[in-house]
Specification:
This protein is about 5% helix and about 55% strand. The chain is built from seven helices and 48 strands. The strands form ten sheets. The protein has a 22-stranded antiparallel beta barrel. Strands 10-17-18-13-14 form a five-stranded mixed β-sheet. The chain is mostly beta strands. Strand 36 and strand 37 form a beta hairpin. The chain folds into two domains: about 80 residues, Carboxypeptidase-like, regulatory domain (Immunoglobulin-like, Sandwich); about 650 residues, TonB-dependent receptor, beta-barrel domain (Maltoporin, Chain A, Beta Barrel), CATH 2.40.170. The chain starts with a helix and ends with a strand.
Length: about 775
C-alpha cells in the first residue's frame, strides 16, 4: 500500500510537471537586447515573441524540437527532451556576412538567398547611404543587369524606353505594388529611402505572384522596423555640378548648379506599439537648363501587437513637389544642356498613400495577411498633361506550413480599382479594375531539393467612352483574362552552393495611358491606340550560386544563363505622314537571350575588410519577325545596316563597387560600363525622313551626329571616402571622376563631374 502511494505521488508530480508552461526570453547576443516578433515553431504549434522578447512554451508534450528564425539573425534549432532543458534565455547571433542574406520577394516568405529558385540581388541600406542617393532609383544602376532610363526600369533588356507609359518591372513598397496604375510608371520619389532595410531585385517573369507589370522582374523596397532601443538618424547632403568636359556647352556661366537634401528618421517602441516617423526634402538646380526640383516627403508607420498572434499596421505617406525639365536638347553641340523650343514643361504633384494591414496567426499557426493601399495622385502640368487619379489595392494572403512534409502553401486574392481623369487621355474619366487569384507550392525534398510551382488567374477591365479618337470601343468596355504559371527548382549541393532552374510565364495588359494617350512634345505627337492587345511571354533561367569562405574571403559567385520571349510586345513606333509622331503598337515577337556573372562578398586583406558587389551582363535582344516587318526595319536607327536589335538596349554591361575600411575611415570606388545603344527611334536621328520632297534628311536635333561620334558606350567612375567618429559620419564623394559625357536616352545628357558632401548623425 505504501509502495502504491509513493508511485501515485510520483506519477502526480510528473503529470503536474509535464503540464507546466515556461516563459522564455529571446535576446540578441549583440547588446543583449530582447527581440520582438521572433518566429518559433515545433511539430504541434508555433509561437511569436512579444514586445519584451518573451514567449510561453507548453511542456505537456516532450520531447520538442524548436526551430527559431528571425530576419537578420542566424536560425537556431533547440531540442528539448526534459523540462530542465528549457533555458531562461535563448540568444540569437546577428548575421554579419553575405552568406546569411534573407529574401522574401521570390516566395512571399523568408528564405536564405542560396535557396531561392530565381535570381535575386540584394542591396543593403549602407550602400545607399554611402553614395548619398537622393532618389530610390539612383542606387539601382549599380545592380548588374539593371538600367534606369529616364525613370523607367529595365532588367536584362526586358524593357527599352516607352516615354513614361507602361512598365514591365513591378515596383513594390513593402510587398505592395506601387506603380501609378493609369500609366504604369514608377514614382521613385514616393519611396522613403531614409527608412529602408534592403532592396530586393528579382530578375525574370514573376507575374504569377505579383501580376501584370511583373513580366520582366520586381524591385521591392523593404522598410526597417523599430528595435528594442530607440534610434534617430539625421542626414544632410549637398552636390555641386562642375563644368562639363566641353566647356563650350556650359550655359550657367559663373553661377552654381547644385542639389541639396536633408532627411530624418526616428524609430521607437512604446510597449506594444512600434513607431517610425521620417521626412525628406530635396532641392535641385540642375546641370540641364530648366531642370529644377523642390520636393518634400513625410512618412509615418505604426505597428501594434494586440496579441502575439495578431498584429495591425498603418502606414501613411505624403509627397509634394514641383519641378521642371525638357524632353529634347537644343542640339548635340553647344546646346546639349539646353532645351529644344517647345519641349520644356513645368509640373507640380501631390501624392498620398494610406496602407492599413493586418497579420494573424491562427491556432494552427497558419498565417493570414490582409494588405491594402489607397493612393490619391494629383499632377498639374503646364503642357496640358495634368492628371488626377484615385487608386485602391486589396490583397488577402493565406500561408500554411505543413512541416511534417516540408510543404509551404501560399495563396491569395487580389483586387485593384482606379479612377483617372487626365488631360493626356482626352480629358475624360477612365476606370480600371484588376482581379486575381494565385496559388504557390514550395516543397523541400530531403533538405537538398526545393521545388516551387504556382498558378495565377488575372482579369483586367477598362471602362472608357465608346468613341475615342475615331476608334469604336463596344459599350466602352475592354477586358481580358489570362491563366499563367511558373515552375522552378533549387538543389543545394553544399551548405552555401546551389543549382537553380526556373520557367515562368508572363502577362501584361496595356495601361490606360498606352491605350488612350494623346499629347505632344516639340514637333512630335503621341497618338492613342485603344485596340492594343496584351503582352504575353515567358522567361527561363538556369543558374549556379557558389558561396565561399576562403580564409578572409566570404561571399557568393553567381552564374546564370537566361532567355525570354514576348508576344505582341508593345513599342511606341513612329508613324510618318500624315501624322508626325509615335503610336503604341503590338510589334510582334521578340527574344532576349544572354548570361550574367555576379559577385558579392567580403574580403579581408590584412586588417582591411573590403565589401565587393558587381557583375557582368550580356544580352542579345532581337525581333523574331524582323525580316517580315518593314515597319520595324524602317523605324530603327540602323535600318541601313539591317541590324536586328531591340531599341534602347545595351548588349554589354559591367558594374563593380568596392569599399574598404581603414579603422574609422572607409574608401569606396565604383565603376559602370554600358555599351552603345545600337538602335533608337529613327525619327530622332532623321525626323523628316518621311517627307518625300526633301532630298536629304537633316539631323535637326543633332542626335544622329552625336551618336556617331559617341558610339563606344560609356565608362563611369565614382569614388567616396568617409570618416566616422562618435555619432557622426562625414562622407566626401566625387562622381564621374573623368567627366565622361554620356546619355542614357537620346537628347538628354547625364551629369558631368560633381562633388558631394554628406553628414550623418545617429542617436541610439
Amino acid at each position: 500500500m505504501k509502495k502504491f502511494f509513493m508511485i501515485s505521488i510520483l506519477t502526480l508530480f510528473s503529470m503536474v510537471a509535464l503540464s507546466q508552461t515556461k516563459k522564455v526570453a529571446i535576446k540578441s547576443t549583440d547588446g543583449n537586447l530582447p527581440l520582438l516578433g521572433v518566429n518559433i515553431q515545433d511539430q504541434d504549434e508555433g509561437y511569436i515573441t512579444d514586445e519584451y522578447g518573451f514567449f510561453t512554451i507548453s511542456l505537456n508534450k516532450l520531447p520538442k524540437k524548436l526551430m527559431i528564425s528571425y530576419v537578420g539573425y542566424e536560425s537556431l534549432t533547440l531540442n528539448i527532451n526534459h523540462v530542465n532543458d528549457v533555458p531562461d534565455v535563448i540568444y540569437l547571433k546577428e548575421t554579419i556576412t553575405e552568406l546569411n542574406v534573407v529574401t522574401v520577394t521570390g516566395s512571399k516568405y523568408e528564405q536564405n538567398v542560396t535557396k531561392a529558385t530565381v535570381s535575386v540581388d540584394i542591396l543593403k541600406v549602407d550602400l545607399l547611404r554611402s553614395v548619398n542617393a537622393t532618389g530610390a532609383d539612383d542606387i539601382l544602376n549599380k545592380v548588374p543587369g539593371v538600367q534606369i532610363l529616364d525613370g523607367q526600369a529595365n532588367i536584362r533588356g526586358g524593357s527599352g524606353y516607352s516615354y513614361g507609359a507602361g512598365s514591365r518591372v513591378m515596383l513594390l513598397i513593402d510587398d505592395i505594388p506601387a506603380l501609378q496604375p493609369d500609366a504604369g510608371f514608377p514614382n521613385w520619389n514616393d519611396i522613403p529611402i531614409e527608412n529602408l532595410s534592403q532592396i530586393e531585385i528579382l530578375k525574370g517573369a514573376a507575374s504569377t505572384l505579383y501580376g501584370s507589370a511583373a513580366l520582366n522582374g520586381i524591385i521591392n523596397y523593404r522598410s526597417s522596423y523599430a528595435k528594442s532601443e530607440p534610434e534617430t538618424r539625421l542626414a544632410v547632403g549637398g552636390t555641386l555640378f562642375l563644368s562639363p568636359k566641353d566647356v563650350n556647352k556650359k550655359w550657367w556661366g559663373d553661377t552654381s548648379r547644385y542639389e541639396t537634401n536633408i532627411s530624418f528618421v526616428h524609430k521607437q517602441k512604446f510597449g506594444k506599439l512600434d513607431f517610425i516617423g521620417s521626412a525628406f526634402y530635396n532641392k535641385l538646380e540642375g546641370h540641364n537648363q530648366f531642370t529644377n526640383e523642390s520636393r518634400g516627403r513625410g512618412n509615418i508607420q505604426l505597428r501594434y501587437r494586440i496579441t502575439d498572434k495578431l498584429t495591425i499596421q498603418l502606414g501613411t505617406l505624403l509627397n509634394v513637389g514641383s519641378s521642371s525639365s525638357f524632353f529634347l536638347w537644343k542640339n548635340g553641340k553647344n546646346g546639349a544642356f539646353q532645351p529644344f523650343a517647345g519641349t520644356v514643361s513645368e509640373r507640380s504633384s501631390q501624392r498620398i498613400y494610406l496602407d492599413p494591414s493586418v497579420t494573424y496567426f491562427d491556432k494552427y499557426n497558419n498565417k493570414h495577411k490582409f494588405m491594402t493601399r489607397t493612393t490619391w495622385i494629383k499632377n498639374n502640368n503646364d503642357t496640358n498633361q495634368s492628371n488626377n487619379s484615385t487608386n485602391q489595392y486589396i490583397e488577402y494572403q493565406f500561408q500554411k506550413n505543413f512541416e511534417s512534409i516540408d510543404l509551404i502553401v501560399t495563396s491569395g486574392l487580389v483586387g485593384a480599382w482606379s479612377v483617372t481623369n487626365s488631360q493626356i487621355l482626352g480629358d475624360t474619366i477612365f476606370k480600371g479594375q484588376n482581379h486575381a487569384a494565385y496559388l504557390q507550392l514550395d516543397k523541400t525534398i530531403g533538405n537538398k531539393l526545393t521545388l516551387s510551382g504556382g498558378l495565377r488567374y488575372e482579369f483586367v477591365k477598362h471602362q472608357s467612352p465608346e468613341i475615342f479618337d475615331k476608334d469604336t470601343i463596344p459599350n466602352g468596355i475592354a477586358q481580358d483574362g489570362q491563366l499563367i504559371g511558373r515552375l522552378s527548382a533549387n538543389y543545394q549541393i553544399h551548405e552555401y552552393s546551389s543549382l537553380r532552374a526556373s520557367f515562368g510565364q508572363g502577362y501584361r495588359y496595356p495601361t490606360l495611358t498606352e491605350r488612350f494617350v494623346t499629347t505632344t512634345f516639340g514637333i512630335f505627337s503621341i497618338f492613342s491606340n485603344p485596340t492594343l492587345k496584351p503582352e504575353t511571354g515567358w522567361s527561363s533561367e538556369i543558374g549556379y550560386k557558389q558561396g565561399f569562405s576562403l580564409g578572409a574571403f566570404k561571399g557568393f559567385i553567381d552564374v546564370a544563363g537566361f532567355i525570354s520571349e514576348y508576344n505582341d510586345m508593345i513599342e511606341f513606333t513612329f508613324l510618318g505622314l500624315p501624322r508626325i509622331g509615335f503610336k503604341p503598337l503590338n510589334v510582334g515577337e521578340v527574344q532576349i537571350a544572354g548570361y550574367e556573372i555576379g559577385i558579392s562578398g567580403q574580403l579581408k586583406i590584412g586588417r582591411v575588410p573590403l565589401n565587393i558587389f558587381g557583375g557582368y551582363t550580356y544580352i542579345n535582344p532581337i525581333y523574331k519577325n524582323f525580316d517580315k516587318s518593314p515597319q520595324i526595319k524602317t523605324s530603327i536607327s540602323e535600318h541601313q545596316n539591317n541590324t536586328n536589335i531591340l531599341k534602347y538596349r545595351s548588349n554589354h554591361q559591367f558594374k563593380m563597387d568596392i569599399e574598404a575600411t581603414f579603422g574609422k575611415f572607409k574608401w569606396g570606388i565604383s565603376h559602370q560600363y554600358a555599351s552603345h545603344f545600337v538602335n533608337i527611334d529613327r525619327a530622332f536621328e532623321e525626323p523628316f525622313y518621311v517627307i518625300p520632297i526633301v532630298p536629304e534628311f537633316p539631323d535637326v536635333f543633332g542626335i544622329g551626329g552625336y551618336r556617331d561620334a559617341n558610339n563606344k558606350g560609356y565608362h563611369l567612375l565614382d569614388t567616396r571616402i568617409s570618416y566616422e567618429t562618435w555619432k557622426l559620419k562625414f562622407s566626401f564623394l566625387v562622381n564621374n571622376i573623368f567627366n565622361s559625357e554620356y546619355t542614357l536616352r537620346p537628347a538628354l545628357i547625364e551629369a558631368p563631374r560633381n562633388i558631394g558632401l554628406r553628414v550623418d548623425f545617429k542617436i541610439n
